[in-house]
Design goal:
The protein has about 130 residues and is α/β, with parallel strands linked by helices. About 40% of the residues lie in helices and about 25% in strands. It has five helices and five strands. It has a five-stranded mixed sheet with strand order 3-2-1-4-5.
């Protein structure tokens, strides 16, 4: 793949979805992210990046294929990116929504539909604010 930086993405609403192939909760959440966020909300002002924690590229590619996701998965060797948002030894399943100014606008931990739906509405609100 290719590399990117937060600097390049500034001005966009960004969703970081922390994940790993061995994470059962992540696997449960990913089809919803694909269907209800990525496929419905993707546009030039919104970026979804799955951040796979500390797994080799071959495993991450197979994981994306197995999960049938089309949003990009990034590698996070040593959980360096994850460590910016959580203790490196804490549970993987979490989402970070970053507004167009680079500020954290919303965080989730684990997965339940109520929290997921709140996150979707937050993303929609941030995208609406951007277009005005």
């Amino acid at each position: 793949g290719e590399s990117t930086s937060f600097t390049e993405l500034k001005g966009n609403v960004i969703m970081l979805q922390f994940t790993a192939s061995w994470c059962s909760v992540c696997r449960r959440e990913m089809p919803y992210i694909e269907r209800d966020i990525w496929n419905k909300l993707k546009n030039d002002d919104f970026v979804v990046i799955g951040v796979d924690i500390d797994e080799p590229a071959e495993k991450v590619i197979k994981f994306a294929e197995d999960m049938k996701i089309t949003y990009p998965l990034a590698l996070d060797p040593g959980a360096r990116i994850f460590g910016l948002f959580a203790d490196k030894n804490s549970g993987v399943t979490r989402n970070v929504i970053i507004d167009k100014n680079g500020k954290i606008a919303h965080l989730t931990r684990l997965f339940n539909m109520k929290e997921f739906n709140i996150m979707v509405e937050k993303i929609k609100a941030l995208l609406k604010d951007e277009s005005e």
